[in-house]
Automatic annotation (TrEMBL):
Transmembrane segments: none
Keyword check for Iron: yes
Essential cofactor(s): heme
Positions of heme binding: 316
Any GO molecular function: iron ion binding
Keywords: Heme, Iron, Metal-binding, Monooxygenase, Oxidoreductase
Protein family (similarity comment): Belongs to the cytochrome P450 family.
Originating species: Linum tenue
UniProt name for this protein: Cytochrome P450
Length: 375
């Protein structure tokens, strides 16, 4: 149902207005903070989270202003992600399979229940009203679709089931996209030549179409080759998930003179593939979007040198959504503002250290000062 109702081409197209509205609100927030240092990660996280919460529940959960609920939600998700990637002794020693020696499982359960409580009231109220909402328009959110499809049988723990799937969507959808956009902005700040080329593309291709409007829509962003080359190059150098979730060999096979036994778990190192000089022989450590101009290489699992979303039947179902969302946000940020580092820091000295988690984030959050755009 997620794949068909949220991530299908038809569904993603119908959701464009929601995403564009949230990006407009993000631009408005930055416009109200001209000349002030802002944390790109926090604002983009709030934007994407509320995009998803509107698709799920038709309402915002966070917003851009600091408040107790937003802070609690952010800290809960961050802690759950940390717990999810923490080494667990019970995973390595079969004798401990049913034990919880580090208390990771207990804490994760407790924090999941805290997170679920933030939206369980919405689910209960909508269910008690028979699916009716307090909205005047005809658009449906995912909770409507669940109720219409009969997933309200008292014989199953319906509330826990829905909460679990919402949790999966929020954690996987926010952290990864936020990290990619933050890395892209970091590389644009460090590579002014790339930033200027993107500005020229926006001036040439977009300004004649928007007639003074401040925003770019998704359809426009999808048609900008240099913008999309920047997205690909960011995903190559900074894949949101550096190690793909383990796959299992269904039968024994030979690969590069190695025997992969049946049942073996295999982890694909996407980060290493993206920096492999035998694959990317044109200085793989350099941020160079031009390598994708005129190239057919794409991240939609057709080219194994670029697989940030995995491949095959188990590839990330959210890939089509990310492919639209990331260019849209980047285009809005570059189109509407000039950006500079606080305290006149030299962009070449930006800390590029990585922090391993669910997403491979920038260890030190990127802080930038938005200024009025020159075009």
């Amino acid at each position: 149902m997620f794949r068909n109702e949220i991530f299908s081409a038809k569904a993603i197209e119908s959701q464009a207005a929601v995403r564009e509205k949230k990006v407009a609100e993000m631009v408005e927030f930055f416009g109200g903070n001209l000349g002030e240092s802002v944390c790109i990660r926090e604002v983009v996280f709030a934007t994407i989270f509320d995009m998803l919460s509107n698709l799920m529940f038709s309402r915002d959960f966070i917003g851009f202003e600091r408040n107790e609920t937003a802070n609690r939600l952010k800290s809960l998700i961050q802690r759950l992600i940390e717990l999810g990637v923490s080494p667990n002794l019970a995973d390595f020693f079969p004798v401990m399979k049913n034990l919880d020696p580090q208390g990771l499982r207990r804490e994760a359960t407790r924090r999941c229940n805290e997170l679920y409580s933030l939206w369980q009231r919405d689910v209960k109220e909508r269910r008690e009203r028979g699916g009716e909402r307090e909205r005047s328009d005809d658009t449906k959110d995912f909770l409507d679709i669940l109720l219409e499809n009969g997933l309200d049988d008292d014989q199953v723990d319906w509330l826990s089931l829905v909460s679990f799937f919402f949790f999966k969507l929020f954690t996987a959808g926010t952290d990864t996209n936020t990290a990619t956009i933050e890395w892209a902005m970091t590389e644009l700040i460090r590579n002014r030549g790339v930033m200027n080329k993107l500005r020229e593309e926006l001036k040439r291709e977009v300004l004649p179409l928007i007639s003074g409007k401040p925003l770019i829509d998704e359809a426009m962003a999808a048609r900008l080759p240099y913008l999309n080359a920047i997205v690909k190059e960011t995903l190559r150098l900074h894949p949101p998930v550096s190690l793909l979730p383990p796959h299992r060999a269904s039968e024994s096979c030979e690969l590069l003179n190695y025997t992969i036994p049946e049942g073996a778990y295999i982890t694909v190192n996407v980060w290493a593939i993206g920096r492999d000089p035998t694959v990317w022989d044109d200085d793989p450590g350099t941020f160079k979007p031009e390598r994708f101009i005129g190239s057919k290489t794409d991240f939609r699992a057709q080219h194994f040198e670029l697989v940030p979303f995995g491949g095959g039947r188990r590839m990330c179902p959210g890939m089509p959504l990310s492919a639209r969302l990331i260019p849209l946000v980047l285009a809005a940020l570059v189109r509407n503002f000039d950006w500079c580092l606080p305290n006149e820091v030299d962009p070449a000295k930006l800390d590029m250290s990585e922090k391993f988690g669910l997403a491979l984030q920038k260890e030190l959050p990127l802080r930038l000062i938005p200024r009025q755009s020159l075009f």
